[in-house]
Design the sequence.
């Protein structure tokens, strides 16, 4: 998303003799089989996501001041954290109601802390912390299974649709003087249900997952979620990224098949890359699935600029 390198003239497509397996003097299948299958980054990510959400639960159940509140707003060891989109809604209301300058120091600490994390790590929050993301991954597998069996058809939308929701919920907050979005925010609903106990709002989560399984996979994350859209906006210059090396790529596109936001890996298609090295855009959730599946290590996690320092 918002990737200027996509507008450049593509490089000449590689000939068969320029493929990494041809350079190694072996067939594609032999080259592919040299790398053992691994789910290293997926397993690590799931572990972190579950651990963070469990820490909220344990802190509440045992009365510990470790991680209080929920993913909508919390305190970590007494340090305030505020969801960026919720904070934007509060600021929108406060500006027009005349109490913007009365917002507390804790509010600003919480807002700028999360804002800084998003600037450094991009949309990492979506795949490494958000509990709905994990449920949507399993729903996606079911959706793909039914598509493969020709039981249902795939339906996709313009990825910029979520900015309509992003603006829309800000306007609703302005006119109602309430953070209405939080009432249907899957992140907040699941987080509060895990910590304080289930509520009737979980029916909305069930309906949303059912829609994604039967009609449009990952609809909420890709096309509707204003929280993810906010992280994509603030993570434009994120330091943590996925680096692509064209010379190591055989254009099998297995990475794009497993990618949660496949439009971010547009450059892996043969004849599409516009430079020898690419970085994923701000929509990338740094989930690591593409890194796990890449046979030639053409995709790797990187911290931009670190190679110039070391």
Sequence:
């Amino acid at each position: 998303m918002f990737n200027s390198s996509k507008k450049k003239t593509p490089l000449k497509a590689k000939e068969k003799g320029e493929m990494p397996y041809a350079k190694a003097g072996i067939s594609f299948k032999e080259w592919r089989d040299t790398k053992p299958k691994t789910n290293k980054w997926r397993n690590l990510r799931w572990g972190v996501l579950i651990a963070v959400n469990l820490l909220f639960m344990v802190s509440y159940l045992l009365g510990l001041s470790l991680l209080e509140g929920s993913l909508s707003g919390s305190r970590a060891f007494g340090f305030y954290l505020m969801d960026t989109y919720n904070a934007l809604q509060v600021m929108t209301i406060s500006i027009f109601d005349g109490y913007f300058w009365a917002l507390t120091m804790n509010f600003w600490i919480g807002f700028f802390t999360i804002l800084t994390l998003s600037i450094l790590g991009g949309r990492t929050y979506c795949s490494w912390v958000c509990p709905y993301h994990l449920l949507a991954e399993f729903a996606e597998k079911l959706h793909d299974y039914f598509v493969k069996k020709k039981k249902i058809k795939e339906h996709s939308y313009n990825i910029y649709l979520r900015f309509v929701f992003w603006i829309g919920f800000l306007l609703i907050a302005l006119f109602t003087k309430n953070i209405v979005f939080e009432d249907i925010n899957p992140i907040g609903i699941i987080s509060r249900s895990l910590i304080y106990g289930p509520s009737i709002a979980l029916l909305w989560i069930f309906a949303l997952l059912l829609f994604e399984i039967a009609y449009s996979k990952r609809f909420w994350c890709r096309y509707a979620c204003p929280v993810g859209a906010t992280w994509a906006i603030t993570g434009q210059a994120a330091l943590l990224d996925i680096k692509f090396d064209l010379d190591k790529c055989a254009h099998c596109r297995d990475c794009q098949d497993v990618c949660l936001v496949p439009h971010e890996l547009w450059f892996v298609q043969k004849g599409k890359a516009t430079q020898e090295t690419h970085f994923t855009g701000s929509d990338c959730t740094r989930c690591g699935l593409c890194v796990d599946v890449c046979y030639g290590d053409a995709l790797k996690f990187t911290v931009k600029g670190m190679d110039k320092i070391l």
In short: The first helix runs from residue 20 to 23. The chain is about 50% helix and 10% strand. Residues 162 and 257 are 22 Å apart (CA to CA). The chain has a mean pLDDT of 93.
